[in-house]
Amino acid sequence: MTKTVQSPMIIAEISGNHNGSLERALDIVRAAADAGAHAVKIQTYTADTITLNVDSPAFRVSEGHALWGSRTLHELYQEAHTPWEWHEPIFELAKQLGMQAFSTPFDETAVEFLEKLEVPMYKIASLEIVDLPLIEQVSATGKPVILSVGTATIGEVAAAVEAARRGGCEDLTLLACTSSYPAEPDDANLRRIPVMAEMFGVKVGLSDHTMGVGVSIAATALGATVIEKHVTLRRSDGGVDSAFSLEPAELRLLVDGCDAAARALGSAHVWATGAEAESLRLRPSLYVTVDVAAGDLVTDANVRSVRPAGGLPPAELSRVIGRTFATDATVGTALSWELLS
C-alpha cells in the first residue's frame, strides 16, 4: 500500500451497515469520501459460505452477547452479508471518488470472485487468522495483505505471518484488534503496535471497534500505518454493526485527528523550531524600567526582567545590580554591557 502522506490510511468498513440496501451502501461510500477516508472495505461471503444453516448451541452467538445474543450464525450472516452483485458498483463508485476499494474474503470462492474484480489488496479478518490455507491463497495473488490479529496468540500470529510469506506476500500489514463488539479502550493494549512491528518486521495498524476516535488517534501516535473503523450513516438507523460504527462527522474527526497525530510525532532531535520565532522574540530579558542618567546606580528599581527579548539575559541580573550607567537611557531601553561602566 502506498500513500502520499505520512498519516495512516483510514479505511471505512461498510460491513453490514448497508442494512440490505445497495443505495444505502453507496451513500456510505459517498459519505466516507466526503469525510476524507482513503479506502472503503466490504466483506465477501454468503451465509452458506461462512457457516452452516444449523440451529444448535455451537452455531449460536452466546446468549449474553451485547449485540447479537442468541442469534444463529446463519441468520446473522444472512442479514449482514453484502450481495456479491453489489461489489462492482460499490468498488466503482469508490474509485470514482478517489478511494481504494477492497474486501475481506472468507473462503476460496470469494478470493476467486474478487480477483475477477481486480481488487488492489485484501484483508483477512481476525477469526480467519487460523485459516492458513486462505491466507496463503490470498497472498499468492501478489497483492498487499492486511491481517487482523484479534483473538490470536503470538504463536498464531507468527504462523499466519509465515503463511503469508510462504504464499508470496511481500506487503503485509498486521492490525492490532480487540475482537469484541463494541470493544472497550481498556482492552485495546495499543503498546502491542511497536512491539508487533519490531517482532515481525511488518507495518502495523489498528482495527478499532471502540466507540469514538480517541483509541485510533492514540494508535497513530504509536506508529499505526492503517486505521480501520466501521462506518454508518446514522447509528439510530440500527443494523448489525451500527452500535460501534462512526457517523460521517465522526469519521472526519478521525481523519483529521489521525493526520494531526502523525504530523505531531516529528523528531526526537528537534527542540526550538522556526515556528517559535515570534515567541522567541518575546522571551524576557533585562530592560531599563525608568529614565536614568549616566552615573546612576543600577538597582532593581530601574532594571527588571520583562518581556520582550533584546536585553541581557535575566540570569545576568545579579551581575549588573550595583554597577553604574555609562550613559543616559530612557525607559524601555534594552540593557546591554555597553550601557554600563
Automatic annotation (TrEMBL):
GO biological process terms on file: carbohydrate biosynthetic process
Source organism, top-level taxon: Bacteria
Record protein name field: N-acetylneuraminate synthase
Pfam families registered for this protein in UniProt: NeuB (PF03102), SAF (PF08666)
InterPro entries cross-referenced by the UniProt entry: AFP_Neu5c_C_sf (IPR036732), Aldolase_TIM (IPR013785), PseI-like (IPR051690), PseI/NeuA/B-like_N (IPR013132), Pseudaminic_synth_PseI (IPR020030), SAF (IPR013974), SAF_AFP_Neu5Ac (IPR006190), SAF_PseI/NeuA/NeuB (IPR057736)
Matches recorded under PROSITE patterns: AFP_LIKE
One function term, GO molecular function aspect: N-acylneuraminate-9-phosphate synthase activity
Transmembrane segments: none
Domain AFP-like: 285-341
